[in-house]
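For practice. Supply one:
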Amino acid sequence: MSEQRRTSFINVRGQTESDPMAWEDICRDATWQGRWVALDGCAYNEAGEATAGLVVDYDDNLAELCARLSAERRKSCSVVFCPPAESAA
């Protein structure tokens, strides 16, 4: 994964800790399609699925993403797969 991935979503989009995105909006953004996405400050539906959150990191490789989250001591993130555009919901 390139350094583009490491560019903070907060810096790219001007998003702050109080500005979570809806899961549907995350799935529409080509930046995250087909990648694992770490969300913080999530809202959940009754099934326990994340419906909104602040994107804090993402990667094509789940193990690398989890290793970074662990190194950053981010223990309360939800990690979800954002489907590719052709199968995005």
About this structure: The chain is about 30% helix and 30% strand. The two ends are 25 Å apart (CA to CA).
